[in-house]
């Protein structure tokens, strides 16, 4: 199937997102289109959030998520907030229910413009994350980078929240570590058969963290919502913080924090901003796009 569809360039705390409207079409955004779009500086992105017609009763849309290398992602919290803002602007609605390969996501836009996404329940079982080795306690697994007697990074907390995550706890600003060098090695470490998102997390107070993330399939990104959720849950799980934390994403351009709440019902709720940048039309097969004229005319 050919022809262009509507899309928007957005960001969630700096996480570069393309929201593509695939409703009314049976096909998908192709990996070739994703790679082509990422190769153009104007449309370079971390994730594509492709909105499809709902597949399950009681849901508003099926969301297909692609990384910038054309591979599939199971979850993207920052991208989900962008989808909510786009659909809210279109329909005037404030609450939505989405289906992804990771499960059902409920989301709500608040009066102040922030958006909350229920990311579901965290997964801690080693074979469900998954890990290549059995660990009874995945809040601290045996994995390190650097010399045995003086590792640079070691003993991460592992979990899944749609995507597999490893959280390495550091005592100094995550920006001081060469994550661009360590990230690819850790993402592709044999411990992670489906690869993993790698986050450095520093506890800055009893209810606050500072993080930096190397995303599976996307590389060093300005922000990662599911990684913020994983860091918040892992901090509470290891007794470093309580169950509600603010996340200062070290690389986010606006430095507006995310709020992560690990509720008593085990669901993880992430609250933060989303920002529309511009819109256009794109061929989901080839990635060839046209940018709309006068994008500044769109009302926020």
From TrEMBL:
Instruction: Kindly list the residues the record flags as site (Could be important to modulate the pK values of the two catalytic cysteine residues).
Output: 165, 215
Q: Entry's Pfam families?
A: DAP_epimerase
Which controlled-vocabulary keywords does the entry list?
Amino-acid biosynthesis, Cytoplasm, Isomerase, Lysine biosynthesis
- Give the active-site positions: 76, 76 (proton donor), 224 (proton acceptor)
- Give me the segments passing through the membrane: none
Any GO MF annotation of the entry: diaminopimelate epimerase activity
The pathway that the record names for this protein is: Amino-acid biosynthesis; L-lysine biosynthesis via DAP pathway; DL-2,6-diaminopimelate from LL-2,6-diaminopimelate: step 1/1
Q: Give the family this protein belongs to, as stated in its UniProt record.
A: Belongs to the diaminopimelate epimerase family.
Q: PANTHER family this protein is in?
A: DIAMINOPIMELATE EPIMERASE (PTHR31689:SF0), DIAMINOPIMELATE EPIMERASE, CHLOROPLASTIC (PTHR31689)
State how it assembles: Homodimer.
Protein name in the entry:
Diaminopimelate epimerase
Organism of provenance = Endobacterium cereale
